[in-house]
Amino acid sequence: MIKKLSIIASLMLGVFTAHAQHKVISFFDEVGSARIQTEEYSEAHDTIVMVDHRWDDVIWSRYVYRIIDMRYKQNYQLYFPTKSDDIDYRNLFKVITDAVVDGMPIYEKNMETIKPDFKQDPVSRTSIPMMFMVDDPLVDYSDDPSHYDISSSDAMLVHYDSIADELSFHFYPFEKIVKNQIKYLTQEIVFFDKHTSRLHTKIMAIAPLQSDKISTRDNSNIMQSLRESIMFWIPFDGLRPYLAMQYAIPNRNETKRVTFDEFFQKRLYTSYIVGEGNMYNRWIPDYTGDEEKVRQEQERIATELLNFEQDLWEY
Q1: What local confidence, expressed as pLDDT, does residue 1 receive?
Q2: Is 138 a residue whose pLDDT tops 50?
Q3: Backbone angles phi, psi at 313, to 5 degrees
Q4: How confident is the model at residue 297 (pLDDT cuts 50, 70, 90)?
Q5: What is the pLDDT of residues 24-62, one digit of tens each?
Q6: Which residues make Cβ contacts (< 8 Å) with residue 78, sequence separation at least 6?
Q7: Rounded to an integer, what distance in angstroms lies between the CA atom of residue 92 and that of residue 77?
Q8: Number of Cβ atoms within 10 Å of the Cβ of 254
């Protein structure tokens, strides 16, 4: 009798366990197509993990500025596709544009420094189209071979409807504009949290750069051209909900996909340092003109950040 009861209990436990498991989703749908469309799993990424670090636990921090260059192979998934009508995938610039049209606030560049200033008011809706206008009518690009000519009437990627008080995306200039959208500037903070006993890195802000306005002919003018190339600044936490709802275009494996948010949080991209927070308020191009010295300075800052955490555990 006891043996029969134990068998029945085991069977019931198996039934309850089966019901408690997650629903099994077949790789193929009812018509035999593979379930790899973006819509199939978008609901799984509606939650963003945010870790609140207490002020008292952060005992050291340092600002670092990096450039993400789309010409590096590791960053291709952020640059492609360059078409605006792709059903399943959008590149990083298209995600940013759609987020702005949806109402995400952006901030004007600081004319005194490259650092973002989020204490000012966001750019108004009526002024946003000018932020997405790549061609500056006051600048002569005739001698710049890297510049893609865009007529002034079609240069605005975002349009404002004063009657409906709405922004809309203008698809025509996108493919021309995105060719120049090959660089992004990020502001990061590297900090040590004594509660977790580890070094953390957080992207604070990101800014698309108009790469055709960055001139390297005159080393003394690099910082000025870099400042002028900033389109606008975006608080990265405000952008994350939009990044989390878009998969990056697959790289040789259709089923191994990550969202843009995962791409950034896992640091799957490559970047290089162009500046840091320091008492002199100088960036690398301000005091190093030679390419070899620039690389040495970049390696010095990266090594200091790496050694800081390791030195904490030396006895």
Answers
A1: 57
A2: no
A3: -105, 15
A4: confident
A5: 778 788 888 777 765 555 555 556 778 889 888 998 888
A6: 68, 70, 91, 92, 248, 260, 263, 269
A7: 9
A8: 9
